[in-house]
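ugh ok fine here u go
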Amino acid sequence: MKKTRLIITLILFFTLNFGALYLGMLLSGEGAFSSWYQMANKAPWTPPGWVFGAAWTIIMICFSIYMSFSMSKSNKTKQLISLFSLQWILNVSWNPIFFYFQNPNLGLIVIIILTGIVGYILMFNRKRIKYFSILILPYFLWLIIATSLNGYIVIFN
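structure:
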């Protein structure tokens, strides 16, 4: 029974996490292909476009496994669901804020808060799930990089 519940939870988190990526993409308008973004002065360390898709795929696989395992081990599931929900909303909202509304200043605020929440989630269950916490590290590290890219655009445009 416990294994079945873990599989169902994993499917749910895969659906929610990849759904967030898809929804964010839909709400971003032309996204990285917009003339506004193409003309922006971007950081020299901005990776090529294909890296974003590969990175987010790996991140969401790892994060889904992390959340599923975390939910099975946590004694504070309501708090964990609240943190996940807030992270989900911020993750989805960054794309339209940054790309569609072309507001990198507000985007920077959103991504800083998102990075803080993901960092908090990392610390939230680390004693309980131990080495499984490594599964959220790609997300946290990618957000640090993304925050620097967003910040560069704010400062140099």
